[in-house]
Amino acid sequence: xxxxxxxxxxxxxxxxxxxxxxxxxxxxxxxxxxxxxxxxxxxxxxxxxxxxxxxxxxxxxxxxxxxxxxxxxxxxxxxxxxxxxxxxxxxxxxxxxxxxxxxxxxxxxxxxxxxxxxxxxxxxxxxxxxxxxxxxxxxxxxxxxxxxxxxxxxxxxxxxxxxxxxxxxxxxxxxxxxxxxxxxxxxxxxxxxxxxxxxxxxxxxxxxxxxxxxxxxxxxxxxxxxxxxxxxxxxxxxxxxxxxxxxxxxxxxxxxxxxxxxxxxxxxxxxxxxxxxxxxxxxxxxxxxxxxxxxxxxxxxxxxxxxxxxxxxxxxxxxxxxxx
Length: 324
Prior knowledge:
Helix 10 (about 205-215) packs across helix 11 (about 220-235). The protein has helices spanning about 1-40, 45-55, 60-70, 80-95, 100-110, 115-125, 135-150, 165-175, 180-195, 205-215, 220-235, 245-250, 255-270, 275-290, 295-300, 305-320. About 40% of the residues are buried. The chain is elongated. It is mainly alpha-helical and about 325 residues long.
């Protein structure tokens, strides 16, 4: 008897699973057909599919497409207020669909950035960096965009959107989009450094983003930051951070100019033999990678023990050693 009960239970669960999968596939087919009907301006077919969707298991999806119809005027008169209302219905049912779209409509159509930011922030809070598992690429992009919009369109430094949150939000955004977070953060840093792509120039934000990218060991960002800090040092200023850690990240990341600069820094900061040997090590490594610094190498070689110089050359040029 227990075996029969177990078999019956497994059969029921299997059938339920099959039904759920079938329903999901049917729903996707309806959504795909609806978009095709909209593109073909086949309103009779589109309305029929919307009616079918309205009786389906996911009312959130129905309200989402109803909102989209009002937003873009698919087989109905364009009506932003009705679109927002339908998106809100979808959001209230699903906690996913609609929030990003509502924010976009308030920003672009209602010219209400304050309300838009509240909706963008909802997406940002609901789908922060700890919620990255089992998220599709489209949703990742939507979350990322929301995180950026929260801060891009805010007044930097005001009470609701403090500066300290800005770089953290874009860090989340970069991590949500893909694994190349350092690359993304560096791109954002350049955008806000120069005021590109329609975004405002904001040097504090750019600086913070560079720091985040360096923390993630992204070499181009480290080299960019190191050059900025070095420029401040040469101008007689005292930057908050030493350029050396960023230089070494860039150098270890394969940027030859950074390798040369690390060597020069060790050569110039201290005349002790161990610093000069470290400089020579980086010079030899940089030359192996294509740097044309033969004269500097010859001059430095005269200042260190020849036995140690030969050992350094052999370790790097013959044995492939990388400076620590």
